[in-house]
Amino acid sequence: MKALVYQGNGGKAWTTAPDPAVEGPRDAVIRVDTATICGTDLHILKGDVPEVKPGRILGHEAVGTVVDAGAATGLAEGDRVLASCISGCGSCDYCRRGRYGQCRNGGGWILGHLIDGVQAEYARIPFADLSTHRLPAEVPDEVAVLFADIMPTSYEVGVHNGRVRPGSVVAVVGAGPIGLAALLCSRLYSPSHLIAIDPAASRRVAADRIADSVVAPEDAEDELRRLGDGLGADVVIEAVGRPEAFELCTRLVRPGGHVANVGVHGAPAALHLESLWISDVTITTGLVDTWSTPELLRMLSGRLIDPADLVTHRFALTDMTEAYDLFADPASSGALKVTLTRT
């Protein structure tokens, strides 16, 4: 088969790779019908995730059709499934508490990280009884694939960890795919005001369809002072993964508020405890656990949430390297999420 293989030192190639096979009773092999690229994949290419070694097939978000399945998966050939970005054994202490991202028995974020991923013509999905979700026929592949990672990540690590509540003032720093998904998920809780912050004009335009106000980073503090009592946001969601974005979040949060860090950081960020210690600010970090994926898929079916507009570019799987180049340069391309589909 063909797959997108990490070459080391920022290199990647769409090249021949071994066909995957079922290795245990909880494995499934899927034909990848639709995949997408994540900002984390770009972090891998930049060297921010040293656990990923040359020769690894990248990717952790896909919709596919089961072609083979172990006896314990409950899946059958021909089933159309969402492959979650997180795998869980279901029996370790963390999995029993729904903390699948911290699985201690070979799960967690492994696809495209510690084992071969799904940016390929075929992929092996471990723990497929817990790590795949059958999809209704009416949900298009390119919408469903957004629920492999960015929707549960923004919901769990951003909105849920940040404790967005009805009436909250919510600021989202970064209006890329994760930030826009966080805006959509925040809307579920009826915030009193929803602010998107991004330096890129194209992303501010995208956020303007969801947020109540959209500003550049240099105007964010003034915007929050203008609102209500001027003390800041109840919840600030960091959706960039850069030191300056995190530090801005800590300036925007009100006393007693929450900063929910979602972005993947490749460099240290300053934590100004000299000013934060007295303000009862809660800062959370986290890897998605995907416990919310079934719930979010029900919201999609019930038309409570619809991230379809986040898909801006479409490619064939065979055009993987071209798609990567476009996705890596959003300032020029205006790319949010790109989908790659079997032709």
Automatic annotation (TrEMBL):
Cofactor: Zn(2+)
Any one Gene Ontology molecular-function term assigned to this protein's record: metal ion binding
InterPro entries: ADH-like_C, ADH-like_N, GroES-like_sf, NAD(P)-bd_dom_sf
Keyword line: Metal-binding, Zinc
Superkingdom of source: Bacteria
Domain spans labelled Alcohol dehydrogenase-like C-terminal: 177-288
Gene3D superfamilies attached to this UniProt entry: Medium-chain alcohol dehydrogenases, catalytic domain, NAD(P)-binding Rossmann-like Domain
Domain Alcohol dehydrogenase-like N-terminal: 24-129
Family from the record: Belongs to the zinc-containing alcohol dehydrogenase family.
Name by which UniProt lists this protein: Alcohol dehydrogenase
Organism: Actinocatenispora rupis
Lineage: Bacteria, Bacillati, Actinomycetota, Actinomycetes, Micromonosporales
